[in-house]
Design the sequence.
């Protein structure tokens, strides 16, 4: 996909297969729509009056308008003018992109980013436009015998003033990189567990390192993991015939700028399939447990995006990946394991395995002396109960770090909600036979999971993102979302300013 700008002042003179312009509710035309209306002797306002209400996520196609060289003018609904915001703009861009893809068009011009929107800049609107188009263009084809042909849309242009072209181009560049990262994340998560194994994730990291010169990959195998004494991580892996993989992917920018406060570290949970182990899950919807590596997928997608942008900040990604399967070697409820930190853990439920994997990864990253560590994991069903599928759960004892992540979420529409982590919750993790239990019972399940992880993060600033409700959709539209890649990339971009 090629993204660029169209700076012609004469909008009606632009030759294109599709020109997208916005229409607010109650027939209010955007400035670009007004230009097309005047050029076509009122054809746009007449069509709006007759059959288009301007509701969000709706469109109307007008063909061969007099005085307009575009083959089609796509009227895109924007909703009430006083309620127009960044989320509505992204929805409108996605609506336009969806039409162009379904109509099998090769190129299109959008004038939607030219509409002022409270709390945004042209750069951010351009970024949102490119991200929306990338998302709309995603197609899963990997395991079909006869996949549908790829979409033909190869060029998407933003109409903007010549003086603003550089700002728009910068936004498009960022949005495309984020979109590419989002779609890599979606592909990895959508792949079935018999293909996307821990070994496959390791190969993906190495392939990214081949593609981008700023990336360097290292994949530790079982013997190396054993040498590190990651007893908690390995206890989960031992129930499966699939070998575990501990992946380290470094981004070192091609600049001489050095941040004295150390790298930013991203940690992803990489359970490529989670049966629950001996505490086995119900059969219904167990197929969706291929998505339990959503944290790992989002980490790799984020690294792809920042490498494409070559951001001026050292970032290290760490992925602890394995399967959680029932077997004669698997963890049993009541087992006690020793983590890399030396702390012992009583396993009361083998389906609370993500925290057992992450705790050793969180200990491992101490060696990097990080400025901040952010882990992400499809960790708890309790977070879905608390927040549904709208907001990612954000946990952190660091107010400044939490605020930075929340702001990045608001900037991209990839929103999070901060959850409590009061010390009083730690009491629920008390064990009679080890330093801690791996679960704290039904109350506040997502909170006690975060409190468990917090015990391994005392050496650095830390935040935890529970993406169990946001990493994928179930039902007839089942598929990965690519979240929280936009949030993470925006956070990292903000750290470079």
Sequence:
């Amino acid at each position: 996909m090629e993204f660029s700008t169209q700076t012609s002042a004469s909008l009606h003179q632009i030759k294109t297969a599709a020109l997208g312009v916005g229409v607010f509710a109650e027939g209010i035309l955007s400035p670009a729509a007004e230009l097309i209306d005047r050029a076509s002797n009122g054809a746009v306002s007449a069509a709006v009056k007759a059959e288009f209400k301007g509701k969000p996520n709706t469109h109307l196609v007008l063909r061969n308008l007099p005085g307009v060289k575009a083959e089609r003018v796509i009227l895109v609904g924007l909703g009430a003018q006083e309620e127009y915001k960044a989320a509505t703009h992204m929805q409108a861009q996605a609506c336009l992109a969806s039409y162009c893809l379904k109509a099998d068009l090769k190129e299109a011009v959008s004038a939607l980013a030219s509409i002022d929107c409270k709390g945004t800049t042209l750069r951010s609107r351009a970024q949102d436009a490119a991200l929306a188009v990338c998302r709309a263009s995603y197609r899963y084809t990997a395991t079909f015998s006869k996949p549908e042909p790829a979409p033909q849309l190869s060029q998407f242009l933003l109409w903007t003033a010549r003086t603003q072209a550089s700002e728009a181009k910068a936004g498009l560049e960022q949005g495309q990189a984020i979109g590419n990262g989002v779609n890599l994340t979606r592909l990895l998560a959508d792949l079935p567990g018999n293909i996307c194994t821990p070994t496959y994730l390791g190969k993906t990291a190495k392939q990214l390192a081949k593609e981008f010169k700023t990336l360097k990959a290292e994949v530790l195998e079982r013997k190396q993991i054993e040498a590190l004494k990651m007893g908690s991580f390995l206890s989960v892996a031992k129930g499966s015939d699939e070998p575990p993989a501990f992946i380290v992917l470094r981004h070192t920018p091609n600049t001489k700028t050095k941040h004295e406060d150390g790298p930013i570290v991203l940690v992803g949970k990489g359970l490529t399939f989670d049966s629950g182990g001996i505490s086995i899950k119900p059969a219904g919807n167990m197929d969706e447990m291929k998505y339990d590596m959503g944290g790992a997928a989002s980490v790799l997608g984020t690294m792809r995006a920042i490498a494409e942008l070559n951001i001026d900040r050292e970032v290290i990604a760490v992925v602890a990946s394995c399967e959680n399967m029932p077997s004669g070697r698997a963890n049993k409820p009541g087992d006690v394991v020793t983590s890399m930190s030396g702390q012992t853990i009583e396993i009361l439920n083998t389906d609370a395995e993500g925290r057992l994997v992450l705790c050793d990864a969180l200990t491992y990253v101490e060696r990097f002396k990080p400025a901040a560590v952010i882990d992400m994991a499809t960790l708890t069903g309790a977070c879905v109960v608390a927040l549904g599928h709208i907001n990612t759960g954000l946990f952190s004892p660091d107010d400044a770090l939490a605020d930075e992540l929340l702001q990045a979420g608001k900037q991209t529409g990839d929103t999070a909600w901060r959850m409590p982590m009061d010390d009083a919750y730690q009491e629920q993790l008390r064990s009679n036979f080890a330093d801690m239990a791996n679960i704290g019972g039904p109350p506040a399940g997502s909170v006690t999971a975060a409190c468990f992880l917090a015990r391994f993060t005392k050496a650095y600033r830390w935040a935890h993102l529970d993406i169990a409700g946001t990493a994928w959709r179930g039902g007839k539209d089942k598929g990965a979302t690519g979240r929280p890649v936009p949030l993470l990339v925006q956070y990292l971009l903000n750290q470079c300013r």
